[in-house]
Amino acid sequence: MNTDIEDKNKVAFVVTTPPNYNLTTTAINLIKEAVNNSYHVLGVFFYQQGVLNASKALSIPSDEFQTISQWLSIKNEFKVPLYLCATAAEKHGLLSDEAESLSGQLIYSEFDLTGLGSLVELSSEADKVIQL
Amino acid sequence: MSQNQIAIINSRAPFSSSHAKDALDIALLFGSYEQNVSLFFLGDGVFQLTEQQLPELISQKDFIKTFSALPFYDIENIYVSSECLAERNLSHSIAVADVKVVVRENFANALSNCNQSFHF
Question: What is the ipTM of this complex?
Answer without folding.
Answer: 0.86
